[in-house]
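tool=predict chain=A
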Amino acid sequence: MVVRQNTKLAHLVAKSGKRIALVTLAGLIWIQPVIGVGPIAGPALTAEAAASQTVKLGEEMITSGAKLVKYEYTVTRSGKPVKVLADVIEVDLANPYVQLDVMTGKGGQVTTRQSVEGMAKETGAVAGVNGDFFATAGQGVPMGAAVTKGTVVTSPAQLQGMYAFAVRNDGTPMIDRFGFNGTVFAEDGSTFSLTGINQESYMTEPDKAYSHVNNMFIYTSAWKAEERPAASATTPTEVLVQGGVVTQISIKAAIPGPVPADGFILRAHGTAADYVATHLQVGQRVDATYELRSLTDGQTVNPADLKMMIGGHTLLVDQGQASAFTRSITSISGGSAVARTAVGYSKDGKTAYIITAEKNSNSTGLTLKELQGFMTGIGVWKGMNLDGGGSTTMVTRPLAETSAQLTFTTSNGSAGQRAVANGLGVFTNAPQGTLLGLKVSGASTLFIGQTVPYALKGYDTYYNPIDTSGLQASWQASNGNLVWTEGGFKGVKAGSTKITASSGQAKTSMDVKVLGGTDLESLTAGTTFAPLQAGTSVTVAVTAKLKDGRTVDVPAESVKWAFSGMKASVQGGVLTVQSVNNGAKFAYATPSYDGFTGTPVVLSASTETIWESFENIAYPISFTGLPAEATGTVSIVQGDGERANSKVLKLDYDLTGGSGSKFAYAQINGTSGKAIPDNATTLTVDVLGDASLNWVRAELSDADGKPVYIDLARPMDFTGWKTLTADLTASNIKFPAKLKRLYVVNVEEGQDERALTGSVSFDNVRFTAPAAGGGNSDFPSATAVMVLGQKSMTVNGKKQDLEVAPLLKDNTTYVPIKYVLDVFGGSAAWNGAAKKITVTRGATILELTVGQKAFLLNGVSSKAEVSPIIVNGRTLVPLRLVSEQLGIGVNWEKKTKSITLES
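tool=predict ok
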């Protein structure tokens, strides 16, 4: 059936209405009661195999017809089991009060990007995940079809093997490959084929042709950018149609401005432009029809018959079995364990699932084959892949809460949620019901000394939040681990407790745990090194890794600090050096929590070095703009005025094109970046400002490849040269790291108050970092000889007694570390509760735990072949491991069974 649509192709804004279901692999912070725990069998797995792979951990209602289900999925990699966490939002497609719909960028428009959480808040979604694939360097347009409430937002790109997920108006789901058929009807009776709706430029498959050459596209007010599209390799002829009548024709030039809400623009090139010139005139009527077509069976699909459609990538599951991939998965790292997103439905077509595989400190992500196993294990009958990696995001609305929240930490970590082209949202249109239940809202864990707010909230018969502001609640803790303060509970001592809120005859409780030192595996500050000088102030935000695998921030009020080599204080998470002890070359600030001692922060002599003066660079520097319409140039030029005798990096920018926040980047060394000094604490740059009120930033890439954004000026409200300094210690940078970009940002909010064009220059990029060496030269030079089984050693030819003799076990030599440090300098601290020994020598902090091969070196986790042992009540450490990390040479003489240490 062919559908005629004119004004229906208007500005689309997703609104709260009927919607469907979701799935994700996520963090295991679960505060609701577990409902049904056990292995899940699926049609693609035997019961025995499924029992060992997929375990249901719990579930919680989101709204009537939609619930969040948590799983633990075990896969085998390199012969070892690996556990991955999964969240699944299941939606009852027959429930009239819940539906799925597409969430598109900002304001429901393509060429804008927004985080999933941002889209959910804007549209009122109670849950959502990231949606279709898009070109990250493009304009932010989904590659596949997007349909909302019967109206096409984008048509499918002509790419092979790409699938889409849809729900018909009768609630039945489908997953298929789709093409687009469209026709333009002129008043003279002639016609011309339409190629698509709201598509950016791309290369078609399999012929590798430019998408817009000799073709005609429709652009509606759902297209935000004024360029339709960018980088198309074509000169457009455009026709503005309003009320079904041609109101403007622009031959070989774009019509300026956005598409009006009451019409659309026909964008033509080549033979399509010739048709426009021959058959269309201002004042004549023009009409357009279009339909979607299944590429599997050729059947047409009327968009008006669809509640929604969202594009994706390869087919993953078909008839309950893992399917062959329908296109190459190389470009999406299909064989690597990364974050994933997928969508599918059950055999009876009554349940929809959206699936994400999470990768963070609690979960390792999945390969596509592993994702297929998970999907079949939970009952997916047909399913496909959505965008993944850093885009993978899920938000869900907790029971009794008013808005959707991030369900798990994305693989971007501290960088937060990625702005994506669109998302798949779950919506409720249920009427207000009566009060069904009450819930304590607040954290399930807290630290000693931390005060956390708690509130009594309610939900109605449709599991939607209901106003409980009129309820007066009284609060009580079951023991003395918590005490009630105004609006919250404060942790007093470690242990579990139950908090109860009472209102009249109604009561509701929640189990809460005050974390203790015994719950911790490690305690580290985000800052590893800092300059040792009076007046130094650095951020020392502390995080703890718990024994259950979670990594959590520790509030400043819960951390105690011990100092050596200096007088200092920590207030509000900021360490300030008051004075340095006479002769001290190193000082240490050691955090502790409830008897658990963490990794010390090392303070040592630091130097500022010029990292780049731009006088003789030997690597490329180039310009990149975002969005694609952002233009500019980067060049090394001779300075003027006070910089007349030096070269500077000049960045000229023009951000008048495109929409949303805009960026003008000076790329350092292509896309690779250039290494910065290890453990750098400060970045300093001389900047020639243009008073544009834009922001000036630097972008680093850390050891994990994650971006770290450093604000230099926010805003740039000055002209002339100014020295800008940024504290790097607050950014928790994992070294080694690189500087990738210096750039200008024009954020969308308040954009009219800032200049869109300008020029800024950079000179003398400097980093402050611990002085080179910082170790061996500051400690005694000596030669020590130990012999296996002998309770003595010689130091520079003199004999000394040992309480414990070195021993050989499993081809590893173990010694009591105290005697090594007595000779070569340094100290060791023993934590009996954690069975952990912390060795400090200069700028090196080594933490080893009895029975564990994992160790921390300057706060960074690593793994050895062996671990410390306890013999006759004494802790012995692997000699070679410790000595090499401390910079002490080790030589083993097999004949004499002697060990020679030198430094």
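The chain is about 5% helix and 45% strand. Confidence is low (pLDDT under 50) at residues 1-52.
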